[in-house]
Amino acid sequence: MTNKKIFVLLPDGIGLKNFAFSDFYKLGIDADFVIKYWNATPFDLKDLGFEEIKIQNSKSHPLTEVYKNARKHIELNRSITRMKDSVYDSYRFPFEYKGIKKALKSGFTRFLVVSHSSESGLKRIRNQIKNQERKTLYYHQSMETLQKEQPAFVFCTNQRPMTAIAPLLAAQDLGIPTATFIFSWDNIPKATMVVETDYYFVWSDHMKQELLLYYPYLKQEQIFITGTPQFESHFDQSKLLSRDTFFEQNRLDLDKKYICYSGDDVTTSPNDPKYLEDVALTIRELNKKGCLLGVIFRSCPVDFSSRFEKVLNDYQDVITAIVPLWGKVGKEWNTVFPTQADIDLQMNTIAHTEMVINLGSSMVFDYVAHHKSCAFINYDIPNALLPNWSVEKIYNYIHFRSMPNETAVFWIDKPESIAGIIENVIKGNQSSIKSAKQWFEIINQHPPEEASSRIWKSIKTIIYKE
């Protein structure tokens, strides 16, 4: 009888949206898989109704971070050389020298980058990461858990966290097949691959080709195209509230139509409050002309700053903030986690707004799933504190080059453009949607609502083959 026990490794809480609150869990149970969440996060999944095995000591080796950072810089250097494109420099984080410990780490990292810049050098760095992690208590405890539980497969929800390395290594050393899911649409060119697994689950053929391009040691048969479960909720009509109910719950005006402004984190869009203010000013002016409009502001769930408070207070007549319903056990971004309630809230916010405005967010795909438009902010705000920041840097990132043509979104090139774009959409101009759908099909395997089903089919293929 085939072993159907599957360990879902959660190195952080972000993976809950894709692999606990989507169709993934239910479909796995319906297919007679035994699913255990191997939980390295501070969140208690038993309270959410899931069977879990807590990882009590997820401490990586002290040198792993140094080798991991060196690997990232070497991979970016090699991408610059191979692609003849300096954009990869923009994916770097600056070295830190404040304090002796940080200075020593940065110095050692830079030495490794210089001394291991070749393909063979990069391979040595990758091997050193594994060698260091095998020395840790974390690795040996992971071995004990796996030997006791004997899962057929270990599936990691995110390729980025260091805390995923040791348990995946332990599984491989025991001959248990492993896979990781590539978490986000922009991850591969940014050299965010931290783990190495037997198989890789990707969103699309586009992402598969990226994986083969940036990691030439991988083979075609190691990569499964599944799509991502993060868009599945948009196709579940049972969670859709009536307009009256949604507006009553969120104290919205039934006489108004609403535009959603989707906030970014402070690194991606440091001038976001000013962009929101420009939209609010525009709505005020349109309302003076007889329009009945409002703005729903949905902040980035991991933005803990107070930077929007002033604009929200100053424009209470037009802006309604609907706060994401994420859980929180700490102040850092990796100590918050999505909830089923917020997934439903996001879906209903999209369903009951006319369009979304933001700076380069993947919300373009969430909105086009509802056949609605997105407008990208595309102008700079003078900011003496950030003289080198520009929207040009954001839109030059590799993942935006997958856009089939520029009509996939409306481009807000100056504040004065906002009014015309909103008026056109309100009047029914959905000219961007056809291209946005084409972009969505490039980025994510279709039909998007079948991603979890494709993931389980891939897992079944692997464990039967193994």
Helix percent reads: 25-40%
Enumerate how many helices there are, as a single number.
17
- Low-confidence stretches are none
The N- to C-terminal Cα distance equals 14 Å
Reading side by side through the largest sheet, how are the strands ordered?
3-2-1-4-5-6-7
* Beta-strand proportion: 5-15%
How would you sum up the major sheet? 7 strands, parallel
Query: What structural category characterises the helix and strand content?
Result: alpha/beta
CATH architecture of the largest domain: 3-Layer(aba) Sandwich
DSSP strand tally: 15
CATH class of the largest domain: Alpha Beta
Q: Quick one: CATH superfamily of the largest domain?
A: Glycogen Phosphorylase B
What is the molecular shape? globular
Alpha carbon gyration radius: 23 Å
CATH topology of the largest domain: Rossmann fold
Instruction: Give the number of domains.
Output: 3
The averaged pLDDT comes out at 94
Protein name: UDP-glycosyltransferase
Organism: Flavobacterium limicola
Explain how this protein is built:
- By secondary structure, the chain is an alpha/beta fold.
- It has three domains: 5-60 and 136-228 and 448-465, Rossmann fold; 64-132, no CATH class; 237-443, Rossmann fold (3-Layer(aba) Sandwich), CATH 3.40.50.2000.
- It contains 17 helices and 15 strands.
- The chain has helices at 16-19, 24-30, 64-83, 100-115, 119-133, 137-149, 165-173, 205-214, 243-249, 272-288, 309-314, 340-351, 363-368, 391-395, 418-426, 433-443, 451-465; strands at 5-10, 34-39, 52-54, 153-156, 178-181, 199-202, 223-225, 257-262, 293-298, 319-321, 327-328, 336-337, 355-358, 373-377, 410-412.
- The chain has a seven-stranded parallel β-sheet with strand order 3-2-1-4-5-6-7, sandwiched between helices. It has a six-stranded parallel β-sheet with strand order 10-9-8-13-14-15. A two-stranded antiparallel ribbon has the order 11-12.
- Helix 11 (309-314) links the parallel strand 9 (293-298) and strand 10 (319-321).
- Helix 3 (64-83) packs antiparallel against helix 5 (119-133) and helix 6 (137-149) crosses helix 7.
- The chain is globular, with a radius of gyration of 23 Å.
- The two termini are 14 Å apart.
- This is UDP-glycosyltransferase.
- It comes from Flavobacterium limicola.
